[in-house]
Amino acid sequence: MTSQRPLIDAVRNAFRTPDGISPRILVVGDLMLDRYLWGEVERISPEAPVPVVHLRHQSDRFGGSANVAANLAGLGVNTFIAGYVGDDAEGQRLMQMLTESSIDSRCLVRSYTRPTVTKTRVIGGHQQMLRLDKEIPGQYVEGERTQLLNAVLDLLSEEPIRAVILSDYAKGALDPGMCQAIIGAARKRNIFVLVDPKGRDYNKYLGANAITPNLRETADVLGVPIHDVDRILDGAKELRRRLGLDFIAVTRSEHGISLIAQEFTKHLPAVAREVFDVSGAGDTVIATLASGITAGLSAVEACQLANAAAATVVSKVGTVPVDREELLHETERENTVSQADKICDMRLLLRRIEAWRARGERIVFTNGCFDLLHAGHVTYLESAKRLGNRLVVGLNTDRSISALKGPSRPVIHEGDRARIIAALESVDAVVLFDEATPIDLIKTVRPDVLVKGSDYTESQVVGAAEVKSWGGRVELIPVVAGRSTSEIIDRVASKTIEAKKVASVTY
């Protein structure tokens, strides 16, 4: 089992290294300024068939490698940045923002031949109406390249840098010679190198420790159709070997991250969230991944954390870096799901099971009506949970209970029963089923352990043969004597009758 505790501790301790030192991470790449012009659209221009946006306010945000650095700073990491800004107002604004975020910019080079890369987005309401890009692509002049490389090499020799991130946006900062010089210098000092790649020439990343392409980028570099995920991931294995990488983390949007290492390939599902804007999610992933690795997390654990971090930023509009407190909340939320969130439909349940299994957790399943919850139920569920790591409870709907036990049952409505069961600490997920038996649900969940009470024999347990067929086991838990819903109902009815008799005699 892979516990969430190391992930929570890493975030809570601001990603300090195993020896208690606050890590220093250097980002090298293409800095950008993301400018947003916010307004409202109320009419179409009489001059041309275009909307008129009434400007309300302007906001500036980090873009490109500057956003990677902002994510690191937001996580509490000592952050350094290297790259180019132009001799213009946008460059001045970007420098000011870096200072305000406590990002060390000593390695920035002012270019007098190129402007600061700036993307200006016009937003009408919540809809992006237009984007204006200010940039000159291509390799920087030799004098500026030499100045940047020397600044990076000097920093690596002066500061105890723990990781270098090459944030490549194909704007000219990271040409092949620059990449190889930085990777070589970092590896000589045993510094971990991660790359967010661009383009089709991945040879310039030869010798790095890890790369984090998205699915489309991976498909493009391999020459494989993007819909053929199996071929893409198979090709990524050979790409990892050819480039001498420790691992490749292929980001797959709503499908999470596929982690490809020499020993294994793991698919880590995304954290379910409503998505408003995926801008900058890749920056958040590589920043969190680097922070986790320097804090001593495994690649799998660091990717799990990166998934949680990405979930916090895609729920916001525009490029927004992750915040450490938000990530801590997200990680703790994933570790201990709130009571109401435990009630799942089938789609959500399967996503959670996929995430639990990716962490090596054992799934226990049981089912029942759980009408009038009593001490016997609580003891039974606590015992079931001890047989694994996650307990899924299949709960009969009202209709199915009435079909089984007659029109007078259930006493408690299915929504209330689900909410009460979800409030128990031993329960991790509750899902309603309407069929006469839970066999279809069991086949879908495919639990490692199937649990029923000892008042059953194994031959009477629905799904027993199926669970054993895929290597699971069946457990019969002793029931608490004298505790049942029927007995409670009978006692209540008996006492009601007695009370009526007494009332009649008294009257």
Polypeptide structure, described:
By secondary structure, this protein is of the alpha/beta class. The chain has helices at residues 5-12, 65-74, 89-100, 142-158, 176-188, 215-222, 229-243, 281-294, 299-313, 324-335, 346-358, 375-385, 398-405, 414-422, 439-445, 464-469, 485-506, and strands at 24-29, 31-44, 51-64, 78-86, 104-111, 118-124, 127-134, 163-167, 192-196, 210-211, 247-251, 257-261, 265-268, 363-368, 390-396, 429-433, 449-453, 473-477. The strands form three sheets. A nine-stranded mixed β-sheet has the order 5-4-1-8-9-10-11-12-13, with helices on both faces. The model is unreliable at 272-278 (pLDDT under 50).
Task: Give a quick summary of the entry.
The chain is elongated. 39% of the residues lie in helices and 24% in strands.
Overview features:
507 residues, alpha/beta, 9-stranded mixed β-sheet, 5-stranded parallel β-sheet
Write the layout of secondary structure elements.
Layout lengths: L4 H8 L11 E6 L1 E14 L6 E14 H10 L3 E9 L2 H12 L3 E8 L6 E7 L2 E8 L7 H17 L4 E5 L8 H13 L3 E5 L13 E2 L3 H8 L6 H15 L3 E5 L5 E5 L3 E4 L12 H14 L4 H15 L10 H12 L10 H13 L4 E6 L6 H11 L4 E7 L1 H8 L8 H9 L6 E5 L5 H7 L3 E5 L10 H6 L3 E5 L7 H22 L1
Helix pairs in contact: 1-10, 2-8, 4-5, 6-7, 8-9, 9-10
